[in-house]
Model the fold of this input.
Amino acid sequence: MNIQLPDVTLAYTLEGQGIPLIFIHGFPLTRRMWQPQVAGLKQAARILAPDLRGHGESQPAPGPYSMELFADDLNALLDALHIQEPVALCGLSMGGYIAFAFYRKYRHRLRGLILTATRAAADSPEASAARIQTAQMVQEKGTAPLFQNMATRLLSPETYAQQTDLLAELGAIMAGVSIEAVLGDLEGLRQRPDSTPLLGGIHLPVLIIHGAQDSIVPLAEAKAMHAAIPRAQLVVLHHSGHLPNLEQPEDFNQAVRQFLNEI
Ligand code: MLT
Done:
């Protein structure tokens, strides 16, 4: 489905009954990455999964996309869909950075946070420089080399070797991301603020789900958030890399289901 917001048209999936549960995808991905969650959790929650501006079936939009801009879009989407009751928000990686931006501005709309494969810290100077280099490469050579490189880094070595269907699905998901979206994301990622100072003051229920073999955001980042957020629980999925919701969908969904029962 599509909806016209004040300055952009967003595509979204809305399915199921119960607590509103919003899924925010990572970089360079689309809402299609949440298919196992839509299928497995729609009995337990009312699931809303948008394609972020410029991504997937949402309207192409010029960047850069700050995490705050994405959070503003999400706020406008909730208004447009008349979802007024507090929501649970699940963000993966860049989606987690957006969850922090949403918390900063719109925490009154939240009843819980699920932070997966993400970190609170801003980019280090090295990470920021690497984003600029990636953007230059994408401008020169297109998105194909980036997507090839990401496919090997997103999945655990085990998933990469054994789950060939998932590898193909990941290729199809990334194919839905335009060059403008990749460039818009890279600049927004690079400029995002440090969310570490927020952590001690988050008094919402928080579930952190992390793959033990995540090579993009190391498990230590999840452990640090777990230690700093007062009411956080940590679930480690041992066979997963950076996409635990796709690599171990049943275990991921079970952790979310339990969290929803608790909040
Ligand atoms: C993501 O998966 O959203 C990105 O890899 C996050 C990042 O590069 O920091």
Remarks:
- Residues 102 and 127 are 23 Å apart (CA to CA).
